[in-house]
Amino acid sequence: MALTGLGLVVYVVFHMLGNLQLFEGPHALNSYAAFLRDMPILLWAARIGLLSMAGLHIGLALQLSIRNYRARPLEYTIHRYRQASIASRTMAISGMALLLFVGFHLLHLTAGVIDPAFADRRDLEGYRDVYGKVVHAFQNPFMVTLYLAGQLGLGLHLSHAIASSVQTMGFEHAALNRLLKSLGPVIGVIVVLGNVAIILAVFLGLVR
Amino acid sequence: MTRLDSKIPSGPLESKWDRHRFSEKLVSPTNKRKLTIIVVGTGLAGASAASTLGQLGYHVECFCFHDSARRAHSIAAQGGINAAKNYQDDGDSVGRLFYDTIKGGDFRSREANVYRLAQVSTQIIDQCVALGIPFAREYGGQLANRSFGGVQVSRTFYCRGQTGQQLLLGAYSALCWQIERGQVTMHPRTELLDLILVDGQARGIVARDLVTGRISAHTAHAVVLATGGYSNVYYLSTNASGCNVTATYRAWKHGAAFANPCFTQIHPTAIPPGGAHQAKLTLMSESLRNDGRLWVPRVPSDQRSPGDIPAADRDYFLERRYPRFGNLAPRDIASRAVKVACDEGHGVGPGGQGVYLDFSDVIEQQGLEVVRERYGNLFDMYHRITGEDAYQVPMRIYPAPHYTMGGLWVDYNLMSTIPGLFVIGEANFADHGANRLGASSLMQGLADGYFILPYTIGHYLATARLLPLLDDHAEAREATRLVATRINRLLAVKGRRTAAMFHRELGALLWNHCGMSRHEGGLTSALRSIPKLREEFWRDVMVPGAGDAFNQELEYAGRVADYLEFAELLCHDALHRQESCGAHFREEYQTEDGEPRRDDAHFAYVAAWEYRDRAEPVLHKEPLAFEFVPPTMRSYQ
Amino acid sequence: MTAHVMKFTLKIWRQSGPNERGRFVTYEAQDVSPGMSFLEMLDGVNQRLLGTGEEPVAFEQDCREGICGSCSLVINGIPHGPDQGITTCQLYMRRFSDGAHITIEPWRAKAFPILKDLVVDRSALDRIMQAGGYVSVNTGGAVDGNVLLIGKDQAETAMDAASCIGCGACVAACKNASAMLFVAAKVSHLSTLPQGRPERARRVTAMLEAMDREGFGSCGNQYECEAVCPKNISTRFIAVLNREYLRAGIVESGRPSEPESPHAESS
């Protein structure tokens, strides 16, 4: 779980960095998208890799959940947490929310099934107009709400996931432990802030 | 008729053990595999013995009443373990540890045994280090030592405040290895209820599975009891609530002599009882007496709070009576002084059972932080239990039964007067004489289990005539039947009083008449009261539930029934020993300033008692000869 | 001290045997003084039950000074009760306000079947230890204790881990009923010291396999175990355990590790 999870974290970080090119204008983003699409083998390899990683991650999560469920057949009547973070207690929920959100996101902005109007539009230079698609999407308050909720789930999931993976992979050091433990929330916040910046920038009309 | 033959090897003290080991017969590896040994108890002595015997190739059946072999009360020992390593180069040696132990025991132990203990002590540390026990270390990586229990050298090895737990976990881990290898079969939650003797030899035990209630016989070629001490006969003690006398008492009834039962150690610094609900007394480290001063109000039943009592109205009784040692006087002496102060009406706190242990002087001189650093955890513990802040008001302490030097009589080979029945650790009468020094109980338990018994039991097995035996042998069946009958009898009483009520009453009786100080009148009155209480128990005890199920109240009632018989033996011994020595203080035998008066001319012997059915126990004497350390009077004034 | 008396309403789990159905039964605890320990309060309840001929509540206890690891109660949803760094037997009634309702449950985990009322079977922990929680050295023949130099820090770290009392509160508190903190403490203790190094790979693998066999859950890194541990054992030892396990997989793979049976060479 930790390995597949960290793989997905790396992807999420690069996804956010790539998307930030929105702020450099339509040319930058659209040519970046085209650059990715120009290497179909690499693109599909990456997509399959990502998909299988996500699949494995979900499969392992299910397997562990079943095992953990079986490890305590009868629940406590009262159960109080002492120090477990909210993020750690909602990993299953935030994970499932993320799964739904990612599915929607793929259908929406990648496959263009949800909003086909922009699916094949080209910009002035002849590139696929990804920029326009994004701007169009985030002018819609409904989409903005949905994407912001998705980011909340992502942030919550990441803030526990990263530190947890570090622990599972056995990184531990008396002096660095604080740093290692704060790694999760910090990366989580950066990714979410980057993504939210895009959404809000469009919605508030800063990027059009 | 019991005959006491201590089998002490002749020759110079230093080489007795070496020569004895050489003269012992050995069991061949092939034969070891055919031999089964039962070990009862998994404290330091039992776990170390079971693991070592398993490693030697015997098949071991190991029993404990806890849910896990790791929980025996050895775990609670805090201070440390002594060894004559002389790592500090401060003049320690095997000879000095031997001398300190003999003198500390007030010349009521065997020289040969104690010398062997001191010799073996160094091996124990090496063995424990090899097992991975995290002893405290110096910065350079060497083992650290501290001085403990008022001796002049630093020979105590320790693991923070948990030495007992770490040593036990080491022995338990060795036991786990042998269980994994199939050499030891572990029976947790199984309690010994009787011994099986065939042709006069100990050949097995009857045990009750505490979960299912099933009673079954287990036979073997020899039986080892490592079942600890009997301080809980006093009801309130520092022992764990499970500690009991049943195993050793059952063995006594089968003919094993019981030695020096009246040597019971009372520890001076426990937290006083808070009321009738009290289930155990919590020990506070003896180290508190390094800085705290003991005092009581000069005027009896002074109701003022301690801060309002001016120095002139305080009696620092230890400093007054023992100016040379002051608050650091040895355990037995300090305990008695506390009792005297309370008996004279100066006691403080609920029921007048307590004296002040005051840190205000050291706080004033050295500062609060110094005291916090040294004793912070103890002050916290005291605060949690009593709700009082010992930085502001003095602590209250009161003595509590802590350890029993008495136990089943054993010879130099640790075998009791029943052939094939070996007794190790606190359960035997052992090496501590009339008083045990700090940090030496762990040493003795491990010495017996790791290094002495595994040799001596081999000699017995190699030389005894042992017929093959099955679990359904007639004697085994009969013993099982008797145990079941006794359990049914307990369940059938269906009276109105709980076992705890009888236990509490017995405890109070013993504490008053056979506790820190004893006298003829009290002891004879106790000897009259105990049988009455016992009769009442069998007439009016209330044990609910069934015998063939998990039944904690039944377990407890069975133990209390044995205490009610054993208490009589304790008082008999205390009555007969007309001298004061070590932990045994007879009021009739004291000097003019209230110091104990030992009587070497008449009592320099081990009192070994033999059981007689429906009659008074019979006394056998094993004379103690002191060839190497001439007895002297202990004086701490 | 004044004779301040308190009263409590207890909701206690009663279950007559491993295969029976359990239920909560409500009892009143009366005449409780603030200086009573939690277990002494329960003693009082049991004495009263005995007076009415009812079977007392079974619960485990022994040393009553926080070191044997016997006591095992979940009090109002928290193993060993509301205070940190102590066992149930070290909890005193002054910690509760008069008239409070207190719910008492046993450790709940598949690996810890209930034997009766509040008593559970924790022998799974023993079996994990038997799988490898030891240093395989024979009695006798050990070298002098000072031959092995062990730095103070290293010894202290080992001691931090070794202070585990095996009570199982970590399992009880874990959402997944995982025994990771227990295994981590044992593995870290021995892998920190040179004596434990020769067997470290086999030990960690065997102990983790045993843990899985016993039906404990997996570690979710929530660190509830650490919060209820009466000896405050740090979850950083879980990272050490994970590292040891990875190391065992990488460094030691391909080496023969099966020990011979004890009688293999006999003739």
> Per CATH, what is the topology of the domain at 266-401 in chain B?
Flavocytochrome C3, Chain A, domain 1
Biggest sheet strand line-up of chain B: 5-2-1-9-17
- Give the biggest beta sheet of chain A: none
Percent of residues of chain B in helical segments?
Answer: 25-40%
What is the highest CATH level, the class of the domain at 266-401 in chain B? Alpha Beta
Task: Tag the structure with descriptive keywords.
heterotrimer; B: 637 residues; alpha+beta; Methane Monooxygenase Hydroxylase, Chain G, domain 1; five-stranded parallel β-sheet; five-stranded antiparallel β-sheet; 19 strands; C: 267 residues; Ubiquitin-like (UB roll); Fumarate Reductase Iron-sulfur Protein, Chain B, domain 2; five-stranded mixed β-sheet; disordered C terminus
Protein described:
The complex is a heterotrimer of chains A (208), B (637) and C (267). Chain A has 208 residues and is mainly alpha-helical. Chain A has a single domain (2-203), classed as 3 helical TM bundles of succinate and fumarate reductases (Up-down Bundle). Helices cover 72% and strands 0% of the residues of chain A. Chain A has helices spanning 2-19, 26-37, 40-71, 86-89, 91-110, 130-137, 141-168, 177-203. The radius of gyration of chain A is 19 Å and the shape is elongated. The termini of chain A are far apart. By secondary structure, chain B is α+β, with helices and mostly antiparallel strands. Among the domains of chain B are: 266-401, Succinate dehydrogenase/fumarate reductase flavoprotein, catalytic domain (Flavocytochrome C3, Chain A, domain 1, Alpha-Beta Complex); 477-602, Fumarate reductase/succinate dehydrogenase flavoprotein-like, C-terminal domain (Methane Monooxygenase Hydroxylase, Chain G, domain 1, Up-down Bundle), CATH 1.20.58.100. Chain B is built from 17 helices and 19 strands. In chain B, a hairpin with a 7-residue loop joins strand 18 and strand 19. Chain B is globular and about 75 Å long. Chain B starts with 15 loop residues before the first helix and ends in a 14-residue tail after the last strand. In chain C, strands 2-1-5-3-4 form a 5-stranded mixed beta sheet. Chain C has helices at residues 38-51, 123-132, 152-162, 169-173, 180-192, 200-213, 224-228, 236-251, and strands spanning 6-14, 23-32, 73-75, 78-79, 101-106, 114-116, 119-120. Chain C contains 8 helices and 7 strands; from the N terminus they run ββαβββββααααααα. Chain C has 2 domains: 6-116, Ubiquitin-like (UB roll) (Roll); 122-137 and 146-251, Alpha-helical ferredoxin (Fumarate Reductase Iron-sulfur Protein, Chain B, domain 2, Orthogonal Bundle). The longest helix of chain C has 16 residues, at 236-251. With 267 residues, chain C is of the alpha+beta class. At the B-C interface, helix 3, helix 5, helix 6, helix 11 and helix 12 of B face helix 1, helix 2 and helix 3 of C.
